[in-house]
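> call design_seq(struct)
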């Protein structure tokens, strides 16, 4: 047994656990399995994600969309199983940061936490922007005034409205998990009901013979290897991984769940499973109703690919089409609020273990939430959005494209951390499957996609086609994000070296700390 080092970031009354892990003063026992699963689904934002991803996926792989969703689901499930094992052994709000530190040491652990923070903060800004777009679209539909939808193109109005959404979401998150849970129940239930309604209505129109360009169902749709080319296959898989991203928020709440060792992992697996079933249902229904042609409502029509539901809601749902606008709005708003959970708790943990400035470790005495970290996440996300919105929407689009690499990076690091941490306790078939094979295969898949995307992004035509000196802007943005993290890590190392010297969180393995099955 290695020596334990109480975290110097601990608050009075917190206990120190194995390897230096310690509680942070969050509201324990406030979330059950249902609440954690609902928040997980909310963070993925299925209505928002699907309306933006159905078209591009069809453009890449055609009718193989369900098969590509299946391929994207596999590494997510495998990595989720690894996350669950790590959480069972070490329930800590820092998740990727904490677990990678315990397995590999402070340097890679810090970068794992940085990857999660960068990805979620950038997505926060994008979600707020989508919420603004659908807010004004909803007003235009409700009031019968199409010109209201154009208000989103006014930069000042857009940025200020985004600020309102961001403040509201930040406030709900600041008030802790009880308030977050209550809001999410309503918003998530509504978007799931509307998505199922849309799918059933589309299938009924196919049966009635009133579909736009009906396709007969084919089992071949689920064979991803029938994709037009390997490049198309890789592009589709990269996109499908992004649409499943967000389930790990269930793990960042582990110190606030009713059973920290089992509830978060079960919620993560349940979340991924529910989302997969929903995606397949919607994908099949959309293909059967619209086809993949370039007609008015065809999924191959470039004019509707950026927002498929806005185009299909009318012909599929008739007078109830406005419900789809409300669903996408509620989806982006719900995800905006729930996505605060991840970066806030990661920054809280990094502050708690002295990997970030001590101020990030502060907890609201009233709401038992990561007060300062939540507010900082909101400020940075809104500032990022405001700057990018003023400069160029293409810059924002390219930045979002880099998220695939950040996701693959910190998910992959966590998957390999599971393999390495449990390397001495692979006793029995279950342990070999869940602690070795599942996370190892998932991590390798993510590593391949990361390397492929990084290489492809160097092409000046990648993404929006923007480039600097003949190098793709997406590659440059990814490089800046990684180098920025390294610089901040070195600064923190010079200011407060305790974490990097292993004094606040120790490196170890499951055998050394008694986590053998």
């Amino acid at each position: 047994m290695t020596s334990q080092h109480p975290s110097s970031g601990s608050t009075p009354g917190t206990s120190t656990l194995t390897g230096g892990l310690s509680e942070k003063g969050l509201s324990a026992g406030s979330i059950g399995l249902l609440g954690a699963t609902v928040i997980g689904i909310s963070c993925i934002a299925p209505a928002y994600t699907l309306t933006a991803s159905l078209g591009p996926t069809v453009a890449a792989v055609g009718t193989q969309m369900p098969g590509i969703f299946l391929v994207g689901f596999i590494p997510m499930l495998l990595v989720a199983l690894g996350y669950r094992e790590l959480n069972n052994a070490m329930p800590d709000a820092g998740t990727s940061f904490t677990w990678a530190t315990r397995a590999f040491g402070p340097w890679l652990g810090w970068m794992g936490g940085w990857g999660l923070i960068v990805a979620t903060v950038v997505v926060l800004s994008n979600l707020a922007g989508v919420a603004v777009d659908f807010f004004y679209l909803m007003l235009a539909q409700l009031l019968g005034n199409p010109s209201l939808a154009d208000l989103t193109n006014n930069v000042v109005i857009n940025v200020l409205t985004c600020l309102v959404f961001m403040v509201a979401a930040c406030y709900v998150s600041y008030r802790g998990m009880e308030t977050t849970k209550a809001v999410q129940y309503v918003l998530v239930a509504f978007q799931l009901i509307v998505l199922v309604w849309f799918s059933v209505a589309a299938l009924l129109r196919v049966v009635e013979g009133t579909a736009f360009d009906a396709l007969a169902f084919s089992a071949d749709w689920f064979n991803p290897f029938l994709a037009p080319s390997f490049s198309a296959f890789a592009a589709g898989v990269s996109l499908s991984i992004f649409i499943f991203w967000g389930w790990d928020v269930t793990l960042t709440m582990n110190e606030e769940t009713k059973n920290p060792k089992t509830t978060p992992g079960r919620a993560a697996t349940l979340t991924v499973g529910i989302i997969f079933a929903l995606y397949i249902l919607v994908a099949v229904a959309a293909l059967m109703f619209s086809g993949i042609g370039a007609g008015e409502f065809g999924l191959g029509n470039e004019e509707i690919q950026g927002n498929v539901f806005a185009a299909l809601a009318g012909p599929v749902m008739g007078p109830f089409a406005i419900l789809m606008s409300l669903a996408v709005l509620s989806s982006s708003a719900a995800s905006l609020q729930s996505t605060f959970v991840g970066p806030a708790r990661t920054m809280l943990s990094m502050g708690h273990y002295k990997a970030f400035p001590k101020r990030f470790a502060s907890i609201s005495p009233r709401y038992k939430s990561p007060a300062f970290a939540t507010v900082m996440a909101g400020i940075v996300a809104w500032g990022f959005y405001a700057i990018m919105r003023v400069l160029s929407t293409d810059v924002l689009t390219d930045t979002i494209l880099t998220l695939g690499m950040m996701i693959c990076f910190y998910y992959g690091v966590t998957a390999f951390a599971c393999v390495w941490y449990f390397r001495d306790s692979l006793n029995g078939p279950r342990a070999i499957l869940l602690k070795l094979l599942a996370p190892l295969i998932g991590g390798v898949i993510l590593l391949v996609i990361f390397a492929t995307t990084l290489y492809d992004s160097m092409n000046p035509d990648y993404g929006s086609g923007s480039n600097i000196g003949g190098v793709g802007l997406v590659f440059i943005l990814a490089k800046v994000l990684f180098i920025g993290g390294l610089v901040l890590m070195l600064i923190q190392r010079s200011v407060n070296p305790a974490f990097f010297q292993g004094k606040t969180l120790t490196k170890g393995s499951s055998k050394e700390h008694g986590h053998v099955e």
